[in-house]
Amino acid sequence: MASMDSNSNEPSSLPPLGDELDFLSLIWAVDHALQRASKRMNATLGLTGPQRLVVRIIGKFPSIPAGQLARLLHLHPSTLTGVLKRLERRGLIDRRLDPRDARRSLLGLTSKGRQFDIDREGTVEAAIHGALPGFSAEKLRATREVLELIAGALEHTGRQSHAPDLRGPSTA
Amino acid sequence: MASMDSNSNEPSSLPPLGDELDFLSLIWAVDHALQRASKRMNATLGLTGPQRLVVRIIGKFPSIPAGQLARLLHLHPSTLTGVLKRLERRGLIDRRLDPRDARRSLLGLTSKGRQFDIDREGTVEAAIHGALPGFSAEKLRATREVLELIAGALEHTGRQSHAPDLRGPSTA
DNA sequence: CCCATGTCAGTATCACTGAAATAA
DNA sequence: CTTATTTCAGTGGTACTGACATGG
C-alpha cells in the first residue's frame, strides 16, 4: 500500500499554514489542549478546569457573591449558575443567603471542596507550573502581555462586521 | 448601601490571585474570550472559530482526507465528524470518495465555502492580526514558544495522577 | 480474519438568550 | 414601580467513549 511517501502517520510532514493562520492554529491548539485537559481532569479528579478555577477563587475570596464572581471571570451570570450547580451537586461548595441582602447567595467551600483548593498533580496549574519555570521571567512577561492583548482584542471582535449575510441554510 | 468601598462595579478592585493562579486565570480568560468570539462569529458570519479554521485548512490543502485533518488539529475523528457535518449542512464543504480508497472521504470547499476562506473583519484572525503588530517580533516569538510548551505540557496532564477518588456524588 | 477509516449514538460541559422569581 | 441579583428553560457547539459499518 505505498507507505513510503509522506503518508498519514506523521502530521509533521505537512507544510506550515503561514503567518497569522499559523498563529491562529497555535491559539486554537492551546484552547483545545485546555479543553482536553479539563475533560481529563473531570475524569480523574472529578471536576473540570473552569470548575477548579471557581473553587480556587472561592477559596481565595470566601463569601464572594455569585455576581461578583461572574464579573471576575467575565462570565454571564446564567453561565455561572450552571457551573455552580454542578459544583454544588458534587458537594464542593455551598451557598448561604446574604443576611443583609437576601437576593445574594454567598459562596463558600465545603470541607470536601477545600480538598480541591490545593495544588495537585494532574491539574492545569500543575502542567503550567511544570512548564513555565523553563522560561525566563522576561519571556513570561512578554507572553502575559501578548495574551492580555489578545484577550482584549477578542472581546471586541465582531462589533462592526458588515457581513453580507452568507449564513443560514436557506436552500434546504 | 456603603458604596464607597470596593464594591461590585469594578472587578479591578479585587486583589490579584497570586502567581500561577493568576497566570492560570489569564489562560482561561483567553480561552473564554476565544469561545465567546467564536459564538459571536457564528451569529454574525455563520460559522464558529474551529469551523473557520477547518475551512481555511481545507482551502490550503484541497482533497485532504478527514483523518489527516483530524490529526493535524489533534482532534478525535468523531469530533471532526460533527464539525464537518455542520459545515456540510451549511453548504460550505463537500466530500468525495477517494477513488483509490473508498473508505476515505476527501474534503473540499464549495464555492460558498471559498467565500469564507479569506481574511475578514470580525474573525479571530482579524482580532489577532489587529492586536499582534503592536508587539516586537521578539515578544511574539517568546509568546509562541511559551504557548507551544504550555500546549505540550497540557497534553500530558493527568497521566500519573493518583487521586484519592474524591469524585462522584456518593452521598446522594 | 484483521486493521484502517470514518460515522453514529450517547453523555457531559460550557456559553449564550430570554424569561421569570425574589428582594432591595 | 423600578432596579438588582440570581435562577431556570431552551439552544447550539465542542469533545469524548464506545460501538458500528465498510473497505483494504
Number of discrete helical segments of chain A: 7
What strand line-up does the widest sheet of chain A have? Answer: 1-3-2
Number of strands of chain A: 3
Percent in strands of chain A: 5-15%
Estimate the helix proportion of chain A, in percent. Answer: 40-55%
What radius of gyration of chain A results from the CA coordinates? Answer: 21 Å
Which ranges of chain A are low-confidence, i.e. pLDDT below 50, for 5 or more consecutive residues?
1-13, 160-172
Could you say which overall geometry of chain A the principal axes of the C-alpha atoms support? globular
Largest sheet of chain A: 3 strands, antiparallel
Summarize this structure as a short list of keywords or feature phrases:
homodimer; 172 residues; mainly alpha; 3-stranded antiparallel sheet; 52% helix; disordered N terminus; disordered C terminus; DNA-binding
Describe the structure.
- The structure is a homodimer of 172-residue chains.
- Chain A has helices at 19-44, 49-60, 66-72, 77-89, 111-114, 124-131, 137-155; strands at residues 64-65, 93-98, 101-109.
- With 172 residues, the first copy, chain A, is mainly alpha-helical.
- The first copy, chain A, has a 3-stranded antiparallel beta sheet.
- In chain A, helix 3 packs across helix 4 (77-89).
- At the A-B interface, helix 1, helix 2, helix 3, helix 6 and helix 7 of A face helix 1, helix 2, helix 3, helix 6 and helix 7 of B.
- Chain A binds a DNA duplex (24 and 24 nucleotides) through residues 1, 32, 35-36, 38-39, 42-43, 48, 50-51, 65-67, 70, 75-83, 85-86, 101-105.
